[in-house]
Amino acid sequence: MEQEIRWLLEEKYKGKLTPQAKKDIAKLKKGEHVDYLIGWKPFLNCAIDLRYKPLIPRVETEYWAEKAVQDVSTANFPGALPHPAGWGPTRLRKIRSASIACLDMFAGSGCIGITVLKNVPYAHVDFADNNRKFLRQVQLNARINSIAKRRYSVILSDIFSGIRGKYDYIFANPPYLAESKRKKVQKSVLEQEPHGALFGGKDGLKYISLFLRQSKEFLAKKGVIYLEFDSFQKKEIEKLLKKFGYTTWQFYKDQYGKWRFAVIR
Q: What are the phi and psi torsion angles at 144 (to 5°)?
């Protein structure tokens, strides 16, 4: 608790114990999440605002998002030329005839797609979510991180219901917590974070299955999917990949040594 109080004071009040800071400390002691109280969270080199109470970005997601950014930045799709040595983003923008098309599915705060846009100047990202409030959150985070409006779109979509295009990259951090493991979830998460962004049915695979069933239809040639999941779901996800006709994938562990994401090609 002392560390969280110190973090709150430093990040929101510049170290000063103001009357409002005291009120926030009281909320913190009652269980309100420190990230919601501060109002934003760093995510790689981006600032992710949380005022609409989306799912709080996790460091495990940040871990694979960094790898995804590296992948996108060296992609070799039509219109996505390889990096000539010594050429910076400005010159690269001028010579590229097309953007790399990306989809941030289950976007929430938009942290994944915003990070891609911030670090890959020739990427375009569509953000999809079934919650209008979170789409407003995405637009706000794009503005905070100085992302031009022409470089992204927000789409109200129940998984792929509102999606029409094809994408070079699809990033998905779906609700994957198993209802059967609800008792193991932290109290603050259950009480404050959006359940619709957390739970994926009894085994946590409801939305992962629906996503994988449809996502191939929206992948461009040589397209890539990044999919986050819970470590115990790895075997079942592999069965789903085979069931839905995927041929190439690889599973990766997070920074804590737990199976956390798949790259599907």
A: -60, -35
